[in-house]
From TrEMBL:
<dbReference type="GO" id="GO:0080120">
    <property type="term" value="P:CAAX-box protein maturation"/>
</dbReference>
<dbReference type="InterPro" id="IPR003675">
    <property type="entry name" value="Rce1/LyrA-like_dom"/>
</dbReference>
<feature type="domain" description="CAAX prenyl protease 2/Lysostaphin resistance protein A-like">
    <location>
        <begin position="114"/>
        <end position="205"/>
    </location>
</feature>
<feature type="transmembrane region" description="Helical">
    <location>
        <begin position="159"/>
        <end position="186"/>
    </location>
</feature>
<protein>
    <submittedName>
        <fullName>CAAX prenyl protease-related protein</fullName>
    </submittedName>
</protein>
<dbReference type="InterPro" id="IPR014346">
    <property type="entry name" value="Prenyl_protease-related"/>
</dbReference>
<feature type="transmembrane region" description="Helical">
    <location>
        <begin position="38"/>
        <end position="55"/>
    </location>
</feature>
<keyword id="KW-0812">Transmembrane</keyword>
<dbReference type="GO" id="GO:0004175">
    <property type="term" value="F:endopeptidase activity"/>
</dbReference>
<feature type="transmembrane region" description="Helical">
    <location>
        <begin position="193"/>
        <end position="212"/>
    </location>
</feature>
<feature type="transmembrane region" description="Helical">
    <location>
        <begin position="67"/>
        <end position="88"/>
    </location>
</feature>
<keyword id="KW-0645">Protease</keyword>
<dbReference type="GO" id="GO:0006508">
    <property type="term" value="P:proteolysis"/>
</dbReference>
<dbReference type="Pfam" id="PF02517">
    <property type="entry name" value="Rce1-like"/>
</dbReference>
<keyword id="KW-0472">Membrane</keyword>
<keyword id="KW-1133">Transmembrane helix</keyword>
<feature type="transmembrane region" description="Helical">
    <location>
        <begin position="109"/>
        <end position="128"/>
    </location>
</feature>
Length: 220
């Protein structure tokens, strides 16, 4: 059904989702939530291993084709998305009531756990998600031969579908839609996946620092 190039972008995402489901199931079965926090490290390790296995298929990432101005725009976009992410939190903008990821034990922060969480969110998740949502899905909706489709030629239909689905992947669905739109526009404008990855990484990295600083663990 899918080509190797498609699976190379789908499987890392499925591995990530598998661990989310696994933690939820184990929690419902009564496993200690505190102990399950380290499943995040396993999840990131598994995703990273999958990305490494398929690395030769990610030809668009083999070179940094992003100028200084485009890089600056991506960084600023990432900061703006962060501000909106922590602001678009009214009750109607949130799905469910997530407990988040709390790295404290006995009131003390486990800094190794924090480091793993921020590193995973800023360095691994953006690559995995952008490969799936932008590089694959948005182009595949327009063409089975998605790799040959110039990002600048992505249709409005694909843009809307991709952005909405990306938004509802997150409990902060409206913030997710805004973020998805911003990252998608960068990808289409700069025609480089590194642009959306950079913006996504800035958002996730700064969000992690903000969470630790404020103790708003539900944002994780």
């Amino acid at each position: 059904m899918f080509s190797r190039s498609a699976w190379a972008r789908i499987l890392p995402f499925l591995v990530y989702i598998f661990f989310i489901i696994a933690v939820d199931v184990l929690t419902r079965l009564g496993f200690d939530a505190q102990a399950l926090r380290w499943m995040y490290a396993l999840k990131i390790g598994a995703v990273l291993a999958t990305l490494a296995w398929f690395w030769r298929d990610y030809t668009e990432l083999h070179a940094w084709r992003l100028g200084a101005l485009a890089s600056a725009v991506a960084v600023v976009t990432g900061v703006v998305v962060l501000v909106l992410w922590v602001s678009l939190n009214a009750d109607w903008m949130v799905i469910g009531a997530p407990e988040g990821f709390n790295p404290t034990t006995g009131g003390q922060i486990d800094w190794l756990m924090v480091a793993v969480r921020i590193a995973g969110a800023a360095l691994v998740v953006p690559v995995m998600e952008e490969l799936f949502w932008r590089s694959f899905l948005m182009r595949w909706i327009d063409s089975d031969h998605f790799e040959s489709l110039d990002p600048a030629q992505i249709s409005l239909k694909s843009f809307v579908i991709g952005v909405v689905l990306f938004g509802f992947e997150h409990n902060l669905w409206l913030a997710g839609i805004v973020a998805g739109a911003a990252y998608s526009l960068l990808y289409m404008k700069h025609r480089s996946l590194w642009s959306s990855i950079l913006a996504h990484a800035v958002t996730n990295g700064l969000l992690g620092l903000w969470i630790v600083r404020t103790g708003n663990w539900t944002y994780w």
